[in-house]
Amino acid sequence: MLAGHSLGGAVISQVADQRPDRVARLVYCAAFVLEDGESAGDVMPEQMLTPITELAATRADRAIPMPRELWRANFIQNAGEQLARDSFHRLVPEPYRPVFEPIRLSRPVHRDLPTTFLAFTHDQAMPPGFWHPGMSGRLNGTTVAEIDGDHEMPLTAPEQLADALHRTATAD
Question: Lower Cβ count inside 10 Å, N or C end of the chain?
Answer without folding.
Answer: C
